[in-house]
């Protein structure tokens, strides 16, 4: 399953969620595709905070944003997504995007990990406004993520069903540990 197909599936929900003026977070900036999408959707009156721990991701995303000619409504942060609560107020964010795993084309030893991902996801819940959306794509396999995948899925299963709707999709007939897209909606 190609990452582009997953991104398109998630982008459908993100596109319906994000409105001009919204505050959004790209929790795992990576190659910048989600940052570009969020920036273009929230327009000049909104703002996107994008996080990554790799300088390569930040530099690549900065250039892609300039090339895409999107509004300059973003802040690129070279730090962990566990610090997102230092930048936005509780219950103020419309959409938060996570892609767990490693930077495509990057160093596979620099990947997300269960403990920090769950910490960031937990903080995300308090940042979402009512009706807010978390788009989460869990990449696992080979050299990344089985432990993280299992821990995050367990965490998701235990979310309060009165406060959050969790929708998990599986590419059931795909080999080689396909990604798992998940939506979390604050009710």
Automatic annotation (TrEMBL):
<keyword id="KW-0489">Methyltransferase</keyword>
<dbReference type="InterPro" id="IPR010719">
    <property type="entry name" value="MnmM_MeTrfase"/>
</dbReference>
<dbReference type="GO" id="GO:0008168">
    <property type="term" value="F:methyltransferase activity"/>
</dbReference>
<dbReference type="Pfam" id="PF06962">
    <property type="entry name" value="rRNA_methylase"/>
</dbReference>
<dbReference type="InterPro" id="IPR029063">
    <property type="entry name" value="SAM-dependent_MTases_sf"/>
</dbReference>
<protein>
    <submittedName>
        <fullName>Class I SAM-dependent methyltransferase</fullName>
    </submittedName>
</protein>
<keyword id="KW-0808">Transferase</keyword>
<dbReference type="GO" id="GO:0032259">
    <property type="term" value="P:methylation"/>
</dbReference>
């Amino acid at each position: 399953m190609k990452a582009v197909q997953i991104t398109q599936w998630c982008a459908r929900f993100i596109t319906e969620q994000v409105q001009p003026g919204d505050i959004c977070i790209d929790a795992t900036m990576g190659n910048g595709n989600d940052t570009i999408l969020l920036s273009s959707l929230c327009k000049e009156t909104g703002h996107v905070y994008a996080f990554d721990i790799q300088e390569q991701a930040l530099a690549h995303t900065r250039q892609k944003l300039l090339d895409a000619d999107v509004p300059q409504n973003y802040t690129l942060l070279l730090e962990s997504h566990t610090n997102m609560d230092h930048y936005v107020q509780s219950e103020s964010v419309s959409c938060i995007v996570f892609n767990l795993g490693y930077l495509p084309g990057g160093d596979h030893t620099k990947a997300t990990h269960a403990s920090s991902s769950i910490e960031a996801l937990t903080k995300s819940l308090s940042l979402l406004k009512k009706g807010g959306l978390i788009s989460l794509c869990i990449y696992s396999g080979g050299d990344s993520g089985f432990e993280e995948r299992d821990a995050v899925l367990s965490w998701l299963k235990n979310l309060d069903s009165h406060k959050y709707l969790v929708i998990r999709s599986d590419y059931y007939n795909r080999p080689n540990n396909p990604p798992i897209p998940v939506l979390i909606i604050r009710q």
